[in-house]
């Protein structure tokens, strides 16, 4: 099968374009990765090169060693992915130790996988274990309203989760385990990857202060939908705070407990504090 005809490749390309259209990917901002299923690799195996040069990942990910990933390219623009996928995205294979990668397809004019490869792969490693193997998508976007909130809200998991839950009734149902927050750190390296993947053990969403967000999910729809829901909630909070600093009424801790019963979700009590 031709690579561009594979369903997962079409889903990947569509998600890049959806993110661009949301305004989350100025210039080369943001990156996306997908942990490819063995049966999907089987179908495209003939189109994959197996003679690429092994290069260091920059961290160690033994629990996903030997797996294949589709990832966006470093310095590439999301808005160009739909026009020329082969030049802007790639498929990589990890070695048996989970220390090195090689390019098997794509980046046809040269280049490297995303500068955030250590964060993506460490998040994949953690989420694969935490989800029993069902999570396959890691998405990083420069979501405007969430970034704005990192200047005015305390950089605490409890505060971001609770304030965003309060802005839309669907939120606690869409991200019941909450949101983690990483203080400002230098992007691209192993340290921010470790901090993010530590949070991803309990959350599907991590905010990077003054930078953006990481989301994890089972497929493209769920992961894009998660990013979209959190960012929309942040937009409502920004609008609310722009009208007045306090709320006349809101969703209360008891309202959340009642919602949890009817919607069969568990909402950790640490987010339902009295204000
Ligand atoms: O430029 O978003 O965090 C890609 C990024 C780095
Ligand atoms: Zn970024």
From TrEMBL:
Top-rank taxon: Bacteria
Entry EC no(s): 4.1.2.19
Primary location recorded for the protein, binned into one broad class: cytoplasm
Cofactor note: Binds 1 zinc ion per subunit.
Subcellular location: Cytoplasm
List of catalytic residues: 116
This protein's UniProt keywords: Cytoplasm, Lyase, Metal-binding, Rhamnose metabolism, Zinc
Gene Ontology terms, MF aspect: metal ion binding; rhamnulose-1-phosphate aldolase activity
Cofactors that this protein relies on: Zn(2+)
Catalytic activity line of the entry: L-rhamnulose 1-phosphate = (S)-lactaldehyde + dihydroxyacetone phosphate
GO cellular component, one term: cytosol
SUPFAM superfamilies membership: AraD/HMP-PK domain-like
SMART domains xrefs: Aldolase_II (SM01007)
InterPro entries attached to this UniProt entry: Aldolase_class_II_sugar_metab, Aldolase_II/adducin_N, Aldolase_II/adducin_N_sf, Rhamnulose-1-P_Aldolase
Protein residues bound to Zn(2+): 140, 142, 211
The Class II aldolase/adducin N-terminal domain, residue ranges: 10-238
Record Pfam families: Aldolase_II
Associated pathway: Carbohydrate degradation; L-rhamnose degradation; glycerone phosphate from L-rhamnose: step 3/3
Keyword field contains Disulfide bond: no
Family the UniProt entry places it in: Belongs to the aldolase class II family. RhaD subfamily.
PANTHER family: FUCULOSE PHOSPHATE ALDOLASE, RHAMNULOSE-1-PHOSPHATE ALDOLASE
Protein name: Rhamnulose-1-phosphate aldolase
